[in-house]
Amino acid sequence: MIDPINNDLMKFEESLIFRLRSLYKGYGYLPYKMSKFEEYDFYLNNKDFLTSTNVIAFNDTDGRLLAMKPDVTLSIIKNASEEQGCTTKYYYNENVYRVSPRTKSYREIMQTGLECVGDVGVYNMCEVLSLAAKSLGMISEDYVLDISHMGILAGVLAEVEADDAVKSSIVELVASKNVHDLEKLCEANGISNDVCNKIAALISIHGSMTSVLARLDKVGFAGEAANAVAELKEICGVLCAEDGADNIRLDFSLANDMSYYNGIVFKGFIKDLPDSVLSGGRYDRLLHKMGKSLGAIGFAVYLDVLEPLTGDGKEYDVDALLLYCDEDDCGKVIKAVEAAREAYGTVVAEKAIPQKLRYRVLLKMDKNGGVAPVGKE
Asked: What is the mean pLDDT of residues 116-142?
């Protein structure tokens, strides 16, 4: 008899969530469950951190303005406790409500991920990056994990005597890999060639961990940027020794909001899918904004982006379609279904053939309650 709990019968998404949950639990991450609703002001005050700034809001019976959760990370860090020398590790499988970048409409999206909050050090960063790579590997062997370090760009921008608007424009140009407009912007705002060349180098240097780190040494970063490069080297030294190192690249065009992200940032991609399926980073500044002297790093897997992969690859909806009629004894129909399950696997019993049902074998009951194949789709 076919085991109904067999992974072969699970939907792709269900199987993936189960495997990711087992992976995260194996590294000491605990399940986190949150309410569907939060105070709207909580999300409004941190809207720049959200993937989508469109939040579904409504008035509760007491007049309070509530929001249907568009994010899980904010809830986790809101409730994080401070304990010297320790970290709090959570994983989650939660439905969030946000505008899908693909459909441009509100969707209920299942999201899974993890967060490590507290006294975050190099080990924690390496662990989270390793789990991100392992998560991508569970989706497909043909994946890429792109890593950057916001501290390098932040260190270079610290040398720039310009207002925040100019610096924001520089970050946008780095993200779009636009060297030409970067040079024009630097010239128009009196930014030195030395600084401009360093920023341009971050746009042009990308590839394997070893090749990129070797090229970074020649750029001549100093101060905060040099410290960030040193941290990145230490992390990459660990990741290079792990399985899947060839799937990890460095790409400094991953430039997130510097008001929140202050260190490692990363994105995961699967072949033939245009959008990133995983995104994460270190976001200490968000916790500091909430009055918590903690560090934090985490990531989310966007299951809605994986929808093109979620087909089970099977030609049929069920293995067998069993036809019966009103005159057939109900008890015999039940026994016939069980017998068909033993012989064929998945079975549906109907009095007529559903138009859109895909089946492998068509069965029909005889007068004695037995079943026999009468044809195929």
From this structure: 94
CA 156 distance to own-chain centroid: 29
Q: Are the C-beta atoms of residues 269 and 144 closer than 8 Å to each other?
A: yes
What is the spatial order of strands in the sheet that 295-302 belongs to? 30-31, 87-99, 106-118, 295-302, 278-282, 264-270, 143-149, 248-251, 206-208
What domains can you pick out in the chain, each with its CATH number? Answer: 11-119+283-313 (3.30.930.10), 318-375 (no CATH)
- Res 257: pLDDT: 66
3-state secondary structure of 280: strand
Backbone angles phi, psi at 263, to 5 degrees: -150, -130
With a CB cutoff of 8 Å and minimum separation 6, the contacts of 63 are none
What single-letter amino acid sits at 363?
L
Judged by DSSP in three states, 18 sits in helix
Give CA–CA dist 300/286, Å, rounded: 17
User: 276 Cβ partners below 8 Å, 6+ apart?
Assistant: 267, 268, 269, 302, 305
Q: What are φ and ψ of residue 333, in 5° steps?
A: -65, -45
Confidence (pTM)? 0.77
285-331 pLDDT per residue, tens: 888 888 888 899 999 998 878 877 655 556 778 889 988 888 888 98
